[in-house]
Amino acid sequence: MNLDPAWWQNYFDAAAIARSHALRREQTLISTGVTLHMDIYEQADKTAPVVLINHGGGGYSRIFLPLALALYERGYTLIVPNQRGQGYSAGDRGDFTLGQLVQNIVDVAHLARERYAGRLFLFGGSVGSGLVYAAAAAGAPVAALICHNLYDSGSIHDSLALSRLAPLRHIPGCPALLSALIRFGAGLVPGLRLPFGALARFEAMVDERDPRFYAIWKSDPLPIKSVSLRYLRSTFTTPPRVPFEANTRPILVINPLRDKMVSPAVTRHNYARLGGPKQYVAIDYGHWATGAVFIQEYAGIVDAYLRQHLVS
């Protein structure tokens, strides 16, 4: 497979690309037995607050470049890792478990904690929302979380909600049957691959105001193209160590109301379950969005929330 390392530049204008080249530093880390790749946008001040931006199932580090640059300009150091088997990281592409991805985030968080003196925050989008919650529950040393969407990795209902099979969640007995079938198949042939695009509605990642993104993403060689039954089983059999109801960490949950990929009702339900200090912001966008207006609005929401947690 040709994993063109420069394809990401198709998403952005010349100014953003030049700014990334000027600021970006790249580093690797061994986690879960493979080499993870990270993009780092580092402030000169080692006491600056640090945000780890974690991608979802169809993403990788460079897709979050505009958000990283917007937060960098607001005074944050950004670390944007590629999870195991995704983006620029090593590992069998598409054949991993949520538990391994959670450990990736925990390991990067500990690296950041050792290197920087500023407060440390986790951001995760889409599937990454549940991953950063689970990473914090597993001991990632962070002060607060920002979850774009919020999904439960211990729930077959949420796993189905992320897929084209979402309507089947409402048929009595169907989630349990599908759960049993996936478990059985993963037990027999855990490495069997299914096309990722046939499982999730990636064509609905952005709303109608964002016409360029999906066409570029669809031709991008870096997003994973297939996933194993081992991975699919893990999406509903890897509950966080701390259930949502027992949470004690500060969390901002951002819910995109135009989301046609995954119903916003899933995030609303999980937000209602959350214990601990929490805030909720609904935004008038699709599952994700691009464009200068969105990025500045979004970075403003994130920045305003994080500034509440810059001191103990």
Key structural traits:
312 residues, alpha/beta, Rossmann fold, 8-stranded mixed β-sheet, two-stranded antiparallel sheet, 11 helices, 18% strand, globular
Care to describe what's here?
Helices cover 36% and strands 18% of the residues. It has 312 residues and is of the alpha/beta class. It has a single domain (9-307), classed as 3-Layer(aba) Sandwich (Rossmann fold). The radius of gyration is 18 Å and the shape is globular. The mean pLDDT is 95. Helix 2 (65-73) crosses helix 11 and helix 3 (98-115) crosses helix 4 (127-137). Strand 3, helix 2 and strand 4 form a beta-alpha-beta unit. The N and C termini lie far apart (47 Å).
What is the structure about, briefly put?
This protein is an alpha/beta fold. The protein has eleven helices and ten strands.
CATH class equals Alpha Beta
Specify the helix fraction band.
25-40%
What does the main sheet amount to?
8 strands, mixed
Number of domains: 1
Kindly report the name of the CATH homologous superfamily.
Answer: Alpha/Beta hydrolase fold, catalytic domain
Q: Whole-Å distance between the termini?
A: 47 Å
Q: What is the fold named in CATH at topology level? A: Rossmann fold
Radius of gyration from the CA trace? 18 Å
Helix vs. strand class: alpha/beta
Can you count the helices?
Answer: 11
What is the CATH architecture descriptor? 3-Layer(aba) Sandwich
Strand sequence of the main sheet, in spatial order? Answer: 1-2-4-3-5-6-9-10
Strand-and-helix sequence, N→C? HEEEHEHEHEHHEHHEHEHEH
The overall average pLDDT, rounded, is 95
Cα shape: globular
Give the beta-strand count: 10
Fraction of residues in β-strands: 15-25%
Low-pLDDT windows of residues: none
